[in-house]
Amino acid sequence: MYTFAAACAAWWQQRYPLAIFFIALGSLLGWPFAALLGIPVAYDMVVRRKLYVDFVAWSVIAGSVVLLPMILIDSFQFGRVTIAPLNIVLYNVFGGAGPNLYGTEPFSFYLFNGFVNFNFIWVLALLSPLAILLGHFFLPMKNKSTLYLPYWLSVSPLFLWLAVFMLQPHKEERFLFPVYPMICLCGAITVDIAQKLCFRIWNVIKTVPHGTHYLDITMFIMISTIVVTGAMNLSRIFALYRNYHAPLDLLIELNRYPAENNVPERTIINVCLGKDWHRYPSSFFLPNKNWNVRFIQSEFKGLLPAPYSSGSNATYVIHDHFNDQNKEEASVYFNLNRCHFLLDLELDRETELEPNYAKMKDRWKAIKSYKFLDAEKSNRFFRAFYIPYFTDKYVHYGNFSLLQSTKLRIK
Questions:
Q1: How much is the pLDDT for 352?
Q2: What is the rounded distance in angstroms from the CA atom of residue 361 to the CA atom of residue 271?
Q3: Residue 144 in this model has a pLDDT that exceeds 70
Q4: Which of 232, 280, 277, 270 has its CA nearest to residue 115?
Q5: How far apart are CA 312 and CA 377, in angstroms?
Q6: In whole angstroms, what is the distance from residue 370 CA to residue 254 CA?
Q7: Which residues of 210-245 are buried (b: 16+ CB within 10 A; e: fewer)?
Q8: Burial class (CB in 10 A: 0-12, 13-18, 19+), 37
Q9: pLDDT of residue 275
Q10: How does pLDDT run across 280-338, given as a tens digit for each residue?
């Protein structure tokens, strides 16, 4: 996202070497599929401006500057020649198991997801091609380009990205991250053209004094857009915090535990997760390196993370139990009886592998609990946006708890 935004800034000012460098940096050091966003830059250089030599030369230079240090560092760390961007492409596109193992979503996924995160800005962004077309035919502008480029080419990365990723069965919210700045830009373009069209219509209905700027009459459109979308953005922020803050706050509580309870720094502590393994944010929340994250068996049947081996060559080791089919591997499960702490979400649904641990008072005691969204029982709109009074009527919560074993002593 950051490198693409920087690439666009350079591209729109015809600073092509810098644009190519940022595309290479985002694609090679970041995510190889982000190279798709460089196609409009390549089209501009090669097709429109015939800068063949410059394009090839700067692509080779930028690619080498970014890729060669990556290969050297990765190969040193992993003990064999490693080209990470190539591995990602091979696994996901050419012959690997592919991303569909990790879930698929319908075509409409990004349409709804875009609205949830950008509300009406997303709608305005999608309407920008229509707005640009209307502006072309009905607005008497001397210059209809963004600096040196035509409008359609400037905004094309967003729609090229959507055209490709909306057709992929495997969809994730993060796949839209690279074009987030472009969504904001396209939304702003639509608002600006709408203001000019309204001014044009107003000028036809009622002649305005000579020299009147379109903003003098249409400022209300911009202000209304900012107020409505800003209010919905705040509503979204409140909803995200209320619904999902529990795991972070519980781990902050866990981080304070050894200082408040005089736990020796060398004590080995096991912090366990079951069905909520995917809600664990980062090991940086743990007090020190002797506190270990462990996974207990649950209804999840995919491949769970595993810790590095101990020793100086830990990054060289490829565990035998790893696979590229997302198949369950029983050897990574930890014995529940050896867990000092357990992070667990308490809902009304229980199974043999996912019991309500908080109710087992003889084995666990709750140190801290926070509310956490029960998505299945909550209204889709009111769980996405916080509306005072109404949200509490249509949204249901469970308790996310930090539990401590009553069987194991921490000393």
A1: 94
A2: 18
A3: no
A4: 232
A5: 49
A6: 13
A7: eeeebeebbeebeeebeeebeebeebbeebeebbee
A8: buried
A9: 95
A10: 988 889 999 999 999 999 999 999 988 888 888 899 988 888 888 889 999 999 999 99
- Residue 147's pLDDT is 61
SS3 helix, strand, coil % of the chain, rounded to 5? 55, 10, 35
Angle of helix 128-138 relative to helix 180-205, nearest 10 degrees, comes to 30
- Token pair of 401 as six digits: 């708890």
C-beta separation of 294 from 335 below 8 A: no
What whole-number distance in Å separates Cα of residue 22 and Cα of residue 18?
6
| The two three-digit tokens of residue 153, written as one number | 């080419």
Using the structure block, give the residue that is written with the tokens 């004590």.
Answer: 267
- Distances 5 to 30, 37, 62, 184, 236 between C-alpha atoms, Å: 14, 10, 17, 11, 24
CA 145 to chain centre: 31
Q: Report the C-alpha gap between 196 and 375 in whole angstroms.
A: 43
Neighbouring C-beta atoms of residue 355, cutoff 10 Å: 12
Contact 26, 4 (CB under 8 A): yes
Rounded CA-CA distance 354/348 in Å is: 11
Return d(Cα 357, Cα 373) in angstroms, integer.
18
What token pair was written down for 377?
């029982």
Question: What are the phi and psi torsion angles at 146 (to 5°)?
Answer: -90, 100
Q: What tokens does 48 get?
A: 């429109």
Q: What is the pTM of this model?
A: 0.90
- The model's pLDDT over 159-183, given as tens digits with 9 standing for 90+, comes to 999 999 999 999 999 999 999 999 9
User: How far lies 272's CA from each of 157, 232, 353, 381, in Å?
Assistant: 43, 37, 14, 33
Nearest-angstrom CA–CA distance, 23 and 34: 8
Which among 322, 269, 334, 255 has a CA at the least distance from the CA of 296?
334
Query: In 10 A of CB 270, how many CB atoms?
Result: 19
Q: What is the pLDDT of residue 382?
A: 96
pLDDT at 146: 54
pLDDT band at 70 (very low <50, low <70, confident <90, very high): very high
